[in-house]
UniProtKB/TrEMBL annotation:
Top-level taxonomic group: Bacteria
Designated name of the protein: DNA-binding transcriptional regulator, LysR family
Family, similarity comment: Belongs to the LysR transcriptional regulatory family.
GO MF: DNA binding; DNA-binding transcription factor activity
GO cellular component, one term: cytosol
InterPro entries, A to Z: HTH-type_LysR_regulators, LysR_HTH_N, LysR_subst-bd, WH-like_DNA-bd_sf, WH_DNA-bd_sf
Organism: Thalassovita litoralis
Pfam families to which the protein is assigned, alphabetical: HTH_1, LysR_substrate
PROSITE patterns: HTH_LYSR
UniProt keywords, alphabetically: DNA-binding, Transcription, Transcription regulation
All residue ranges annotated as the HTH lysR-type domain in the record: 10-67
Length: 308
């Protein structure tokens, strides 16, 4: 491959095509997502293969599969496009002088992982913008969103439904894990039933929360009554501290559970949570983005931080 010619001839269209191809795998889907024709997509792929002097796709019926070289190129394309997007809204924020304020409500199971990178990105782009964060559970946060006290709510959702006057978007999918401290008797079990687990103390979400109803429904699904020895708490950090000091079982997002498991503090138990509360969504009032430039920027920063 002629590296100089490759770098000189590669275009943003090439990068968008290969990144979209990695995501969708279908020429029709790629064309639709980029608002171009299917022949145009095929042409760009052929140009990329010619420039790279290597096969980047394998055609199988109506699907295109990336070769190892294609996957590597797609990874580079995503990073380049992400940096360009960040540059665009950094400059946009500087030009517009985005200040103002944005108020975010989030459940404790998503706040520590989702918010810091988004906030960091926003403060770098718009240092004058004020950001306030309120932690709670969805039932307590949602009225504040409707009243205008909060601009956005980020929560794990059970049985999503449309809400008049409210826009919503899926941010990510992440499993919930059942955990115990490393010295718990169940930590050594390779197979475990919910009937066994229910006999132990539990740290569960607050009784009037969506998360608590979802957990109790999960117990019923496996033929068990909810545990009776319960500590109800919505504080993730308090829950972690209690888990380390008691024989209670608890629920944590997979990423947080894995972090503490890798430190040798907690053990993820072999219990199926059936995708309970795995979907994380953000909610905002219709028209909010147009009315509040700080909100609009935060939403973009949130999307950018998740794309990394």
């Amino acid at each position: 491959m002629n590296a100089e010619k490759f770098a000189r001839s590669l275009t943003l269209r090439h990068l968008r095509i290969i990144a979209a191809l990695a995501e969708y795998g279908l020429v029709a889907k790629v064309a639709e997502s980029l608002n171009v024709t299917q022949p145009s997509v095929s042409k760009q792929i052929s140009e990329l293969e010619r420039l790279a002097d290597i096969q980047i796709v394998i055609r199988e019926r109506n699907r295109l599969h990336l070769t190892p070289a294609g996957n590597r190129l797609a990874d580079h394309a995503r990073r380049i496009l992400l940096q360009l997007d960040r540059a665009a809204f950094d400059l946009d924020a500087m030009t517009q002088g985005v200040a103002g304020s944005v108020s975010i409500g989030a459940v404790s199971s998503v706040a520590p992982t989702l918010l810091p990178p988004a906030i960091s990105l926003m403060k770098r782009s718009a240092p004058q913008a004020n950001i306030s964060i309120t932690e709670g559970h969805f039932v307590s946060l949602f009225p504040a969103l409707e009243s205008g006290a909060l601009d956005m709510v980020i929560a794990r959702i059970w049985h999503p439904q449309d809400i008049p006057g409210i826009q919503q978007k899926v941010l990510l999918e992440e499993q919930i894990a059942i955990v115990a401290n490393k010295d718990h008797p169940l930590a050594r079990e390779t197979t475990l039933s919910w009937a066994q687990a229910v006999e132990w103390p539990w740290i569960l979400p607050l009784g009037n929360s969506v998360a608590r109803r979802a957990v109790e429904s999960l117990f019923a699904e496996f033929g068990s009554a909810p545990p009776v020895n319960v500590i109800a708490s919505s504080s993730l950090f308090l829950n972690i501290a209690m888990m380390l000091d008691t024989p209670a079982l608890g629920l944590f997002p997979q990423s947080i559970a894995q972090t503490h498991a890798s430190r040798g503090e907690l053990v993820i138990l072999p219990l199926d949570t059936r995708n309970m509360l795995s979907q994380v969504r953000c909610f905002w009032r219709t028209g909010q983005a147009e009315a509040n430039s700080a909100f609009d920027l935060f939403q973009k920063c949130l999307e950018q931080s998740l794309a990394r």
